[in-house]
Amino acid sequence: DPKDIRTKDESFAHRNAMGSGAYMVKEWQPDQKLVLVKNPNWWGWADPKVAPTNVTEIIYTPIKSEATRGAALLSGEVDFSLDPSPQDLPRLRAAPSLKVMDGAENRTIFFGMDQFRAELPGSNIKGKNPLKDVRVRKALYQAIDIAAINKVTMRGLSQPTGTLVSPQVNGWTKKADVRYAFSIDAAKKLLTEAGYPDGFEVDFACPNNRYINDEEICQGVTAMWAKIGVKAKLRTLPLVTYFPMIQRYEASIYMLGWGVPTFDALYSLQSLVRSVGAGGDGNYNVGRYSNPQMDALVERMKKETDLKNRNDLIEKALILSHEDVSHIPLHNQIIPWAMKKSVDVVHRADNRIDWRLVKIN
Fold it and tell me: What is the pLDDT of residues 246-302, one digit of tens each?
């Protein structure tokens, strides 16, 4: 009988995974383990170039604790970890039975700022929004010591960037990927010119379990902004409450990491810097940055079929984002994968393991 899937009544599909890929579900215990076995009927096995793997069974074991994940690797209890703790990496790299593979993730970490509300909740500045002034946004940018974040907080596991997309993405150019120089003096001068010689108070929201060292980065930046008189009142939240909060436009300054599954910059520009509208426009522009010139560029690149002309439009949009300081880009994440030395994998920029390409030696 026809079933209304909008109701809360359960169907077979609610608790039974279905698919037609290289592996199929043998056992699933939610939050405990997922067992996959080779699908003998999958079309790809006919071509060893498509799937050179010799893996016949995969057991996914979710381990929330970073320390426990590291211990499981070191003891040999697990063969592979997609997200080892940065703190554990020296031990994992030194272990004779393990190896760590580093690769640049197609994900850019940045700060966004509320450029819409007339007054910022929680700020000591009443009747106006300091973040609407490009000089203030640039001051916050130039007060960030990105080299210190890379060396101390990220332990080298980052590529500092001056733009909103990573080098793997179509439309990225060196010309667009330029950072404003770190300078406390320049930042203070900009704040004074904007009318805030003593700085101001502002709410600052960050996730604490989404990106590599997200909370630590935000704590460090809070201290950096204090040096120019900006008192950022940091609030860190788990991702389950953080993302609904920023999508309600409640954050004054917020952290976001943006991956590009299409590997084309339009995906980022339409979501992050296009004015909020229909059809996905500005769906993650939660600072509500808006510039008619930017909107026109995004609309043109949606329709342009000549690749060179389209990439020129993308570069112009990325440069305009830089000039407007629509956001404060920080870095692209370097993702370490840790595994037994007997495991061969292909590191992917989307931070997803493709089991068809894994070999156990």
Answer: 999 999 999 999 999 999 999 999 999 999 998 889 999 999 999 999 999 999 999
Q: Which positions ≥6 away from 288 have C-beta within 8 Å?
A: 114, 115, 116, 249, 275, 276, 282
**CATH no., domain 105-334:** 3.10.105.10
Query: How would you class 298 by CB atoms within 10 Å of its CB: exposed for 0-12, middle for 13-18, buried for 19 or more?
Result: buried
Bridge partners (DSSP) listed for residue 15: none
The architecture that CATH gives domain 12-103+336-360 is 3-Layer(aba) Sandwich (3.40)
CATH 3.40.190.10 location in the chain: 12-103+336-360
pTM recorded for the entire structure = 0.84
Q: Is 301 buried (19+), middle (13-18) or exposed (0-12) by CB count in 10 A?
A: buried
Phi/psi region, residue 351 (left: phi>0; alpha: psi -120 to 50; beta: rest), is left
pLDDT tens, position by position, 32-75: 999 999 999 998 898 888 889 999 999 999 998 889 999 999 99
